[in-house]
Design brief:
The protein contains four helices and six strands, in the order ββββββαααα. By secondary structure, the chain is α+β, with helices and mostly antiparallel strands. The protein folds into two domains: 94 residues, Roll (SH3 type barrels), CATH 2.30.30; 63 residues. β1 and β2 form a beta hairpin. α2 crosses α4 and α3 crosses α4.
């Protein structure tokens, strides 16, 4: 499959700590993800920590995926020590700290959403109120800007709260 993903055909295209999946067939990849633990450009292989253990894989059968939720928590490389492994750690580093499990990630995402997105929505609603727009006109203007970012419920409830608070109801 290197023709479909030419950027993943060489071990140098990967970094230690990348989240990857393996090809199963032409139309599917593994349902689980792994973490690249070592890179061996001399033998054209990667060491990947899968849920079932550390395996040496061909980079042409591996694709990078975006680490979203459900990242495997790899706190220890379970591969056997070797010269290739020590050379990989020297050249590419060990498993980075960002791969370690974190219970604070959902809180940080919610905090960022609340501070940045909701704050911007409220500022735009206040500008609509100062521009003498009614709630429907404010909704239309704010919805155009934030419909891809947040739900309709958040926009409607924010408009109602801001207009009530400003009017003093």
């Amino acid at each position: 499959m290197p023709a479909l993903y030419p950027m993943t055909s060489a071990p140098e295209d990967f970094c230690v700590g990348d989240t990857v999946r393996k090809w199963v067939s032409e139309r599917s990849v593994t349902p689980y993800v792994g973490i690249v633990t070592n890179i061996h450009p001399g033998i054209h292989k990667l060491d990947v920590q899968w849920p079932r253990g550390n395996m040496r894989e061909d980079p042409e059968e591996i694709i990078k995926v975006n680490p979203i939720f459900g990242i495997p928590s790899v706190s220890q490389d379970t591969g056997y020590g070797s010269y290739d492994k020590s050379l990989s750690e020297k050249l590419h580093g060990k498993i980075p700290k960002r791969v370690m499990p974190s219970d604070k990630m959902p809180i940080r995402i919610a905090h960022t959403f609340a501070n940045k997105i909701i704050g911007n929505i409220v500022d735009d609603i206040v500008d609509c109120y100062k521009g003498n727009l009614n709630e429907v006109q404010a909704y239309n203007q704010v919805y155009r800007k934030y419909s891809n970012t947040c739900s309709d419920f958040i926009i409607r409830s924010s408009i109602q709260k801001v207009y009530r608070d400003i009017k003093g109801e």
